[in-house]
């Protein structure tokens, strides 16, 4: 799954996402976080993330083979074991 924002997230939001997902974060930059293990998504937690970010947060569920580009141009693809850097 990925969590993305239209504008760069503030440091408090980034730290919140890191605290929520910890070692399951495959990659994170200023606008997106890629999370490996699908855990239950709780609306209260997502509302808190969006409130902390002061902007809407978009959560996307991805299929194996999907490719996502981070803001720095680095690409990641979903494989059988989660996100992997894609060249």
Summarize the structure.
This protein has helices at residues 11-21, 43-53, and strands spanning 2-4, 25-28, 32-35, 58-60, 67-69, 75-79, 82-86.
Question: Rg from C-alpha positions?
Answer: 12 Å
Q: What's the overall average pLDDT, rounded?
A: 94
Overall SS class: alpha+beta
Rough shape?
Answer: globular
3D architecture notes:
Helix 1 packs antiparallel against helix 2. This protein has one domain. The radius of gyration is 12 Å and the shape is globular. Strand 6 (75-79) and strand 7 (82-86) form a beta hairpin. It has helices at 11-21, 43-53; strands spanning 2-4, 25-28, 32-35, 58-60, 67-69, 75-79, 82-86. The strands form 2 sheets. Strands 2-3-1-4 form a 4-stranded antiparallel β-sheet, with helices on one face. It has a 3-stranded antiparallel β-sheet with strand order 5-6-7, with no helix packed on it. Helices cover 25% and strands 31% of the residues. It has 87 residues and is an alpha+beta fold. The model has no long low-confidence stretch (mean pLDDT 94).
Keywords:
7 strands, 2 helices, four-stranded antiparallel sheet, three-stranded antiparallel sheet, 87 residues, alpha+beta, globular
Helices and strands in order, then pairings?
Blueprint: E1 2-4, H1 11-21, E2 25-28, E3 32-35, H2 43-53, E4 58-60, E5 67-69, E6 75-79, E7 82-86
Antiparallel strand pairs: 1-3, 1-4, 2-3, 5-6, 6-7
Helix pairs in contact: 1-2
